[in-house]
Amino acid sequence: MHTRDFPNLLRPGDVVVLNETRVMPSRLNLRRLTGGAVEVLALEEIENGRWEALVRPSRKIQVGEELLDKYGKAVLRIEEVTHKGTRYISSIKVGMREIFETYGEIPLPPYIENNEIDQNRYQTVYAQNESSVAAPTAGLHITQEIIDRCSAVGASVVTVNLSVGIGTFQPIATDTIDDHVMHSERYSVEAKVWETIQKAKRVIAVGTTVVRTLESVASTGRLEGRTDLYIKPGFQFKVVDALLTNFHLPKSSLLVMVEAFIGKSWKNLYHLALKEEYRFLSFGDAMFIERGG
Question: Is the C or the N end of the chain the one with fewer CB within 10 Å?
Answer without folding.
Answer: C
